[in-house]
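Batch manifest, entry 17 of 40.
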Amino acid sequence: MPSSRQGSIRLFRFSGIDVFLHWSWFLVAVYEINARAGLYSSVAWNVLEYLALFVIVLLHEFGHALACRQVGGVANRIMLWPLGGVAYVDPPPRPGATLWSIAAGPLVNVALLPVLWVLVMSARSSGWAGTMPDAYALLRQVWRIDLWLLVFNILPVYPLDGGQILRSLLWFVLGRARSLMAAAIIGLLGVGGFVLLAIRMRDTWLGVISLYMLMSCWGGFRQAQALLRVAKLPRRDGFACPSCRTAPPVGDFWKCGQCGQGFDTFATQAVCPYCSTRFDVTKCLDCGAAHSMSEWAVSAVAPRSL
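Output type: structure tokens
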């Protein structure tokens, strides 16, 4: 996944969300537009089709970002790159919040389908197929693009939206770590199918997408392993993360940024016992959120949830 800043161009800012375009988008755009030459009477229509693809992708990513912010999460950047778009979302570590943040993207495609279909039917009844064949063909193709993006994204293969939706649903039953592990394993099996399909079809882009999915699945698998190891640690009474309501583990798992020594911040009230550095916030090893020690103590009455 590309960096949200390096090698990118900031296009605009909407509703507090910055939209970036990665430089490699231009190279792939030239290749794809030339590869589809001949479908219209002018290459300008190919350019419009490619731009329409990324308008749909952008709306899809805004669906993720706005839904994440609706449930109290952080979402302030979107990156457009050759493989589509990435909304940098950080929803609260709860299954319901994560589910809505992910599902909102495909729901945008669902909402676009009838709108685009009405436009296609209106153009057809107006005789565009004969009088403006390029415009009519473009409308039909944009409808197909939206449908294809919807079907592809809801496949239950991690890290596609469908795989993350599956993970969020499993989270209600299995917990945070085991749901991610299950989604990653299912995703690895799905990626294997994509790889075989790419080889059989000799489709370079499908192979690139498969490689990206493989890397993401493996990253999810390793993250799930780390979460499971943390979940098995003994927990300290009297404290709980305000974000995920999980009690912190007992042990020297926090590293001092000043002297580099590991220590148990909850045993020393957020003060390094080696160099006496005091820390204003303490990071949760389960969800990654950072809160003051007083907030950890206040949240101790909340139920624990892994």
